[in-house]
Amino acid sequence: MYTRVKQLFAIKGYRLFVICVLLVGTGISITLPYLALYCTKELGMSAGAFGVFTAVSSLSGVVANTFIGKYSDRKQDRKFIIILATVSSALGYTSYLLFDNYLILLIIVSFFSGLGAAAMPQIYAYAQESANESNSDDKTFAMSTLRTLVSLGFLIGPLFGTIILGAVGTLSGDFRHFSYNRISCATISA
Fold it and tell me: Helix, strand or coil for residue 13?
């Protein structure tokens, strides 16, 4: 098993993919459990307003992914798209700290988070291309390992979120950390 995992790192850029999927998975799961609390308690949204907010921002990710996916399949510039998406996501989460007006926040978060939603699918597509270009016989194992690492990020993220919340004492600290997380992923991708 050790040899099999070691051979995955012969795939061009695989170390980078491992780091990025861990950062993205952890970052999402750090903030997700606290987003409803932050929006309702800190920003004063009603439960219904938060539901609309979540639906619109999620739908913007679906729409953006559709167009970005078509573009990236034709232009093959995935690295730039990943960098743009992670920086965009960081800006989306930073906007929670800068704006408290519902409509402005809805527009800005939907725009930046919508673009940022393309990060994960583009990382997977880039990793699949790298695996296909390599002579690896374990392409399926390589992709499954990346998906497992995202799940690992989802498992450890809430723990890190709780630690950050305990250390910082405010929900704003969680969103600031996620912004740094996305900027780190963009920097590593560059």
Answer: coil
Per-residue pLDDT tens for 113-141? 999 999 999 999 999 999 888 877 888 89
Q: Let me know how long the chain is.
A: 190
Which domains are present in the chain?
Answer: 13-189 (1.20.1250.20)
At 24, list the tokens: 């993205």
DSSP for 81-125, please give it: HHHHHHHHHHHHHHHHHH---HHHHHHHHHHHHHHHTTHHHHHHH
CA–CA distance, 70 with 80 (Å, rounded to integer): 15
User: Which of 112, 63, 118, 106 lies closest to 88, judged by CA?
Assistant: 112
- 99 by Cβ neighbours in 10 Å (0-12 / 13-18 / 19+) ranks as middle
Reference 99, options 110, 87, 85; nearest CA is 110
Name the nearest CA neighbour of 76 among 117, 24, 130.
130
Residue 70 · residue 84 · CB < 8 Å: no
Who's near 86: CB < 8 A, 6+ residues apart?
20, 24, 116, 119, 182, 183, 185, 186, 189
pTM, two decimals, is: 0.83
